[in-house]
DNA sequence: TTGCGTGCAAAGGTTTTGCATGGCA
DNA sequence: TGCCATGCAAAACCTTTGCACGCAA
């Protein structure tokens, strides 16, 4: 990973600028489209999809896929060495569809447990806990 | 959960019959459609999607979503009463597609943790851990 | 008889692709 | 100058929905 794209275009630059202003937030491709449209400097959606894909490959942003029916969301991860990258878990309510983002040390430990006891390297970015949220219980 | 559907239609019956013949295999909605079409007894795709959804709700089959662009796949899980069934977690390898069933007290404790600390009632039947298995690491 | 299940067709929504144009190096 | 990136439109894709008809209980 960390394969830089060949060209440094204006679109790539402003997209990165925007992503840097919302670290830790989860935004969709549609959010990005809307943001630049409302700024008066729209970017083609294919460009946005293609740039986001590149940035994921480079490790600059993370991509979260919740399920097949909701759009994928992206999160700025940082451009330095990301040894300190935060792990984010997701809980999705089966009833109201609400998505909850969790940063929790205890949950992070299950990754280590799965690896040491079950020989399985958990990918938290792809893993979603299904169940019932507080309001729907 | 485990809410039986009200009617026992012919389509539901043959769909279940088919699923029972491929336990442990991962099949897509399109696979099911094609199977019955080739059998000469086609079933409408909306029926298939709706029945599969019901069966997931009832816990008879599991649904696995790899990502947003590939079709979801389903796996027969069994119809025994799940009232006293032990809790079973699933790990799916993103690379080879292998599915691992886990019975583990430590993992079960995360359900309690999610409930007490995050107000979220985990549904283990629907939750899949994605990552890499031992062979693919 | 009641109302759920079915099936066709069409919509829905996200993501990808074709292709001509424009811009970076 | 040589490619790559862009952007528009349209396609591709899986899945869901509307609606009339049929069938289970």
Count of structural domains of chain A: 2
Number of helical segments with 4 or more residues of chain A = 4
> Strand tally of chain A, please?
7
CATH topology group of the largest domain in chain A = Arc Repressor Mutant, subunit A
Structural commentary:
2 copies of one chain form a homodimer. By secondary structure, the first copy, chain A, is of the alpha+beta class. The first copy, chain A, has 2 domains: 85 residues, Orthogonal Bundle (Arc Repressor Mutant, subunit A); 51 residues, 2-Layer Sandwich (Dna Ligase, domain 1). The first copy, chain A, is built from 4 helices and 7 strands. In chain A, the strands form 2 sheets. In chain A, strands 1-3-2 form a 3-stranded antiparallel beta sheet. A 3-stranded mixed beta sheet of chain A has the order 5-4-7, with no helix packed on it. In chain A, a hairpin with an 8-residue loop joins strand 2 and strand 3. In chain A, helix 2 packs across helix 3. The longest helix of chain A has 14 residues. Chain A is globular. Chain A starts with 9 loop residues before the first helix and ends in a 5-residue tail after the last strand. The interface between A and B is medium-sized, with 33 and 33 residues. Chain A binds a DNA duplex (25 and 25 nucleotides) through helix 1 and helix 3.
